[in-house]
Amino acid sequence: MTSLVSAYLKDKNDGAISLFNEFRDAALAAGTEVEEKVSKTMVAWKGKRTFATAYVKGKYLECTVDLLHAIEHKHLKASFPTTKKVVTNRFTLEPGETVDEQMTAWLKEGFEDVGPGTGSKS
């Protein structure tokens, strides 16, 4: 874990940190050359373009996956267009829940379809 990520997670809820690390591992494994950007309020993963974000809010993990379509999932809170092509899908995970296989697959899809940029996609 980078020192920037460690600094971001300092003083966060242990259960939420565990969820964050699961999501982070899945985002970093979504493809080759995934870049991690850490700010004071959140962490983002990108190729040329951001395809996923996460932040700890109390004991919860709030995270997004950008895709070229809306999805349905038990932890999904909202899906909304962020460009003409990209739909941001927002999840909330609670301690005891997990980043499941479907979420991992969507992270890979996000990296492949949104991460390179969508300028040439139809």
From TrEMBL:
Which Pfam family would be a valid example here?
Answer: DUF5655
Enumerate the spans annotated as DUF5655 domain.
Answer: 6-112
Q: Which InterPro entries match?
A: DUF5655
What is the superkingdom listed in this entry's lineage? Bacteria
This one is known as DUF5655 domain-containing protein
User: Source species, please?
Assistant: Devosia algicola
